[in-house]
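Title: Prediction job returns without error message
Component: structure pipeline
Severity: low
Priority: P3
Assignee: unassigned

Description:
Job completed but the reporter wants confirmation the result is attached to the right record. Sequence as submitted:
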Amino acid sequence: MDSEIHDITIREAAAEDTHSVTALITQLAAACGETTPVTDVYVRDYLATPGNKVLLAESRGQVVGLLSYSVRRDLYHAAGSCLIDELVVRDDARARGVGSALVRELLARMEAIGCAEVSVTVLPCNAGAIRFYRAHGLTDEAVFLEKHFRKPE
């Protein structure tokens, strides 16, 4: 296992990061044996949509990972609820603390703004991701059901 990356900085993605975000999401899909219809135009629109955010991890001026999430108002909790959408780390930066840095930053930001909860969906077969999120304090709380209307291309 490689050593941890010590010079990680976390920041919010901006319009000029569109291509880096698209490339990482494309890498994520490929790792799952899929393709994604995401384009730079879609990412630019996503970043401009209120409530949608992307945190980027950088090392030595290079984007090495991202965590996308959305925050919405939740009636039950009468507070914000955050949903992690994607967490992806560049292949050459995996197992070096990048994902943990992104999750720690997100949790700190959500606590600071008074969010009631942070949620993530993980496939039951992805034991590594389940261990990862549990190690960051997330617990089994619900069953997430979904219906797809189109498959990724």
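Comment from assignee: result matches the submitted record. The beta strands are 8-12, 52-59, 62-74, 79-89, 117-120.
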